[in-house]
Amino acid sequence: MPETSVMARVETRAASDLRVKTRLFAVLTILSNVAGNSALTKGMQQLGGVGNSPLALIAALFHPWVALGVALLIVWTLTHMALLSWADLSYVMPVTALSYVVTAFAARLLLNEYISLERWIGIVLITAGVTLVGRTEGTTAS
Amino acid sequence: MKWVLVLLVICATTVGDVFRSLGMRQHGEIHDFRPGAIGSAFAMVARNSYVIVSTCAMAVSFFSFMKLVSIAPMSFAVPMSAACFIPETLLARALLKEAVDWRRWTGVCLILIGVFFVTK
User: Fold this and answer.
1) Are B20 and A81 an interchain contact pair (Cβ–Cβ within 8 Å)?
2) Which residue of B has its CA nearest to A93?
3) Euclidean distance between CA atoms A11 and B57, whole angstroms
4) What number is the ipTM of this complex?
5) DSSP state letter for B95
6) CA nearest neighbour of A37 among A116, A96, A123, A81
7) Whole domain around residue B89: which residue ranges?
8) Most buried residue, A3, A134, B7, B94, by most Cβ within 10 Å?
């Protein structure tokens, strides 16, 4: 078998592995972001108005839901950082916008919230946008 | 006040994401996901100056967003903060030298309109 053919196969395999790794980390990033933001929002709503001082914002971090939200957002930060160590920002940013769709479905399934026609339009548009970006190669910058 | 916070969230998120991307790219692809290896990779990354700037910018973005959602409805805060997709895509092309083709631009535009509808 010619050496170039073997090398081409190794490159194809490496590209395929990278694609799987990119998608897996994108899913982890989306899920940790949705769970983190939901917990944070619930905590902030329970707290009501927060004062203007940095101390008041720091004190809010000790509320259980806010603390859980922060912990999940730390997971989001780490997976997002790992993803950006090999994938393009202009790929990661739009693809992880799928979190808006996951949030809408989570609200429907967990909180029994109604999804209006406008929301369905938004879900379709975001999914179409993410699909379009998802069809591009995740890593283009050298 | 809320528009100042929107501007702060957009600018800080853009700076945070672009610098994070620069820092992580400088570090190189993370291959090893064993706990010890991840720990040492992030310990190394934590000393990267781009990542330090990114973390500070993300902290500003986080606290500004927290404040924004406490004074404005989510249906306003979320689509407004998603506007950072535009400067980030522009900078990804100009600064990070990424291949931003028509599919990525169209995708970003569809997502922005979609976010507006989803959070209405």
Assistant:
1) yes
2) B85
3) 37
4) 0.89
5) T
6) A96
7) 2-118
8) A134
Q: Distance between CA atoms of B11 and B6, rounded to whole angstroms?
A: 9
Residue A119 phi, psi dihedral angles, 5° rounding: -65, -40
Which residue on chain A is closest to B78 by alpha carbon?
A: A100
Report how far residue B41's alpha carbon sits from residue A46's, in angstroms, rounded to the nearest whole number: 37
Q: Do A89 and B99 touch (CB under 8 A)?
A: no
**Of A94, A95, A117, A98, the residue nearest A106 (C-alpha):** A98
Give chain B positions within 8 Å (CB) of A119.
Answer: 117-118, 120
Q: Which residues contact B50 (CB under 8 A, 6 or more apart)?
A: B19, B20, B22, B23, B26
pLDDT in tens, A70-95: 999 999 989 999 999 999 999 999 99
Model confidence pLDDT, tens digit, residues A92-128: 999 998 988 888 888 788 777 788 899 899 999 999 9
pTM of this structure: 0.83
Closest residue on chain B to A45 (Cα): B70
**Domain total in chain B:** 1
Residue type, B111: I
* Residue B95, min C-alpha distance to chain A (Å): 11
Specify burial of residue A89 (Cβ count, 10 A radius: 0-12, 13-18, 19+). Answer: buried
**Closest C-alpha to A123, from A95, A104, A96:** A104
Encoded tokens for A94: 């739009």
